[in-house]
Amino acid sequence: MFVSTRRTFLKAASVGLAAPFAFGQSSGQAPKIETTQLGDNLYLLSGAGGNVIARTGADSAVMVDGGLAQNAGALAQAVAALPNSGPVKTLFNTHWHPEQTGSNARLGTAGATIIAQENTRLWLQQNITWPWNGQKFKKFAKVAQPNKTFYDKGTLDSGIRYGYISDAAHTDGDLYVYFSQQNVLAVGDAAYGQGWPVVDWWTGGWIGGIVGGLQRILTVANKDTKIVPAVGPVLSLADITVQVDMYGTIFDKLNQMLNKGRSPSEAVEAKVAKDFEAKMGNPDEFIRRSFESLWAYNSPDA
Ligand SMILES: [Zn+2]
Q: Are 75 and 94 in contact (CB under 8 A)?
């Protein structure tokens, strides 16, 4: 019943496109990469555009996500400077966004294995334009595309398990990587460490998936797990539980508004997230995208 509604919306959205801005422009300044040890041979590197995890080893290192492309060189230097660090032979992409995939070209060219959920590879094979702001993303050259994809889950040598977050919390290709020896779980943008998340419904994410993805994280983690989001500080199981409640509340309220035929602007005006503003910041953009995501989710063939 929402098919025509979404088409109308998409048409309206394309009329008001913001001017696309060039992505990947260098500011000319080297980023400051900060390193935090998470466990034995395991490090968090922040400052490259999104949190990156590196597991070192004399023979080979493993990375989860690669920051923005303009920071790939500085990030590679920071990883090489870690104790006991060998060449990076495996890179995970937690999803297709530029903050995660900026080292693909560099490491793919060097012969690394790039692991991603199959949907992430499919997105990186095509040009993408977000309808809500006109931002454009260019498809990747073959060498920079994930070269080892999976649908459900997998394991990698000693103590690394990975799996699909099939709820579509952020995109339809989200994955987690669990380092069992260090009890560290990388979740990409399926959980945010600070601020409201981007709801990328154009590539499958939706507000219901945010709730589902967080609940899935709860089943993989335990009370001592360090949960590493792509944005913000390391989270605990308790933090994720709080988030499940918050997003669950918002999801329910938006669903009720959807069923009453309300619009995204009416959802924003209704201030359904006002109880969380003090902690989370202005929710307007998040609420608008979340409401749109309900339309998108209810009309997958639109
Ligand atoms: Zn993202």
A: no
CA distance 95 to 174: 5
Calculate mean pLDDT across residues 29-33: 86
pLDDT at 22 over 80: no
CA distance 174 to 35: 24
HSE (side-chain half, CA atoms, 13 Å) at 82: 34
Q: How far is the CA of 97 from the centre of ligand 1 (A)?
A: 5
* pLDDT tens column, 146-175: 999 999 999 998 789 999 999 999 999 999
pLDDT band at 297 (very low <50, low <70, confident <90, very high): confident
Phi, psi at residue 64, to the nearest 5°?
-110, 115
Strand partners, 133: none
R_g of the chain, CA atoms, integer Å: 19
**What was the pLDDT predicted at 255?**
95
- What's the CA-to-centroid distance between 170 and ligand 1, angstroms? 7
Q: What is the C-alpha separation between 117 and 213, in angstroms, rounded? A: 15
Measured distance CA(62)–CA(24) in Å, rounded: 24
If phi > 0 it is left, if psi is from -120 to 50 it is alpha, else beta; for residue 47 that is left
CA of 191 to the centre of ligand 1 (A): 10
Beta carbons of 302 and 296 less than 8 angstroms apart: yes
